[in-house]
């Protein structure tokens, strides 16, 4: 394959890579980007060596693309310029595929492809984009080297694998250093609103029947959790407690919140023994929630740049939501019961609950203690009712909880937990409903637990002997084991989001401290965010840039043939003598401008060797160089 054909193949790959990067974001209106399909026949024509379209035709197509762009931004995309630009670049790539004539046209394709990568980075945080970006980076370096060869007229290149590979390695090393050293900011200039937050029902000040049913059908990841020790049994990620039920909706009647005092790096809720607790590192996906989740009895919360609030039911909240992911650490004591206080509001019953109370009394007849009564109700609901997410709307005038208990006898966690709380309250036992998440997928490839919306759950807490005890009357549902591929991909995406997209100033400080220790720099870089903490990056970067510069100079020297090198010397000489010579000057122009026999003879040999395929044999080389020496010596022009 000739050098020029390889160059064309690389250009086609670059254009397709840029378009693919935008397509995988899932944000495009494919109708507006359908014109990009024309790039396939466009590059097919290019690779076959067919002539480009006329300038007039290309100008007409470009004008049409701009008109479509204006319609797209104002009507289709609703004023979203970022999406409009994404659609436009795809169409422009297609138009340009019919208008590639000179080597500089290829560089225009590279620029548009780079713009597409920038736009795509604002539309997605997927690790797949990272792989596409890596491929693009490699191809861009190779393309620029090929561009240099083609513009110099080389038809073939040998012995370049080692230097090209070294340039790629040094480029990625330098890029990595720059990435680590750049200041981190929390704001986004473009594209922030395209990274849509997960909408999670059931974790606000009220929850209605149906909220959890919809969540149970949604496999969207809500959070990922790393624990410092294995958690035995079923894991209950506690979210909110609700006390008031009106027959349709659960509410938290105590809406007042107070700030928790920060002690060191933690917001302390209760003293704890470090050996008897579990530490959970929680990373919540961008969502509309401000609730803090943790296992059972939460002892402390650690989070930066946010205050932590608590209400009278021990619900924990962040002081404000976030447009991005949120990370915090919760220290918990993992038990199914823990100390607390009762309150009359945990005995509230909605009107029309007599039938439910009578059922509770029948179930618990003969029980000797409140704990036994609670256990009997829990077992009764598990044994006599069927778990189902396909619940029909009850008949007019019938409450959902009554329809569940006395008619359909099937429902999901919300039905079971509500039924048990009402029955316990009917027996004079303080009880409350808790919403959160249960279980989660263990990802052995990342060492963390994946919690999805489908893991949303409701359970019961009953006040028994000065302790709040947990009861779960919902029968176990069928679990679907995650596939190996999905777990691996989730681990890859998680690490990409954590260490690339989410790379922070705190991470910079950690790396700086470790490198400082490694190189014996003492405490020089101990303060995270300290100005100059990456001062060691500068000399390393300068050295790498110098090495790259030297390699490029060597490649340039190797890429210029003897015939071209001597021809450039002649060009410089003629320009010095006053002849109008520039980059666009051709050998024919020089032939017409100069009547010198020696120059004409030199130009003839140059064209034979450069374009005519004549070999630069030793005799030809001596003659070629001799003519040039005579021209330079005599100053003949």
Structure notes:
- It is a single chain.
- The chain is an alpha+beta fold.
- The protein folds into 3 domains: 3-157, no CATH class; 206-492, no CATH class; 561-634, no CATH class.
- It contains 20 helices and 22 strands.
- The protein has an 8-stranded antiparallel sheet, with helices on one face.
- Strand 19 (441-443) and strand 20 form a beta hairpin.
- Helix 5 (81-96) runs antiparallel to helix 6.
- The longest helix has 25 residues, at 127-151.
The share of residues in extended strands comes to 5-15%
Helix content: 40-55%
> Largest sheet at a glance?
8 strands, antiparallel
Instruction: Count every helix, treating DSSP H or I runs of 4 or more residues as helices.
Output: 20
Q: How many distinct beta strands?
A: 22
Major sheet strand order: 7-8-11-14-9-2-20-19
CA distance, first residue to last residue: 40 Å
Sequence stretches where pLDDT stays below 50 over 5 or more residues: 186-193, 524-536
Structural class: alpha+beta
Average residue-wise pLDDT: 82
C-alpha Rg (nearest Å)? 36 Å
Number of domains: 3
Q: Based on CA inertia axes, which overall geometry fits?
A: elongated
Describe the structure using short key phrases.
single chain; 637 residues; alpha+beta; 3 domains; 8-stranded antiparallel β-sheet; elongated
List the helices and strands and how they pair.
Elements: H1 3-23, H2 30-33, H3 39-47, H4 55-76, H5 81-96, H6 103-121, H7 127-151, H8 161-181, E1 206-208, H9 211-216, E2 221-227, E3 236-242, E4 244-245, E5 249-251, E6 258-259, E7 262-263, E8 266-268, E9 278-284, E10 294-295, E11 297-302, E12 308-310, E13 316-318, E14 326-333, E15 337-339, H10 354-363, H11 370-384, E16 386-387, H12 400-408, E17 410-411, H13 413-426, E18 431-438, E19 441-443, E20 448-452, E21 456-464, E22 467-471, H14 484-501, H15 505-518, H16 537-559, H17 562-576, H18 587-593, H19 597-610, H20 618-634
Parallel strand pairs: 16-17
Antiparallel strand pairs: 1-5, 2-9, 2-20, 3-10, 3-18, 4-5, 6-12, 7-8, 8-11, 9-14, 11-14, 12-13, 15-22, 18-21, 19-20, 21-22
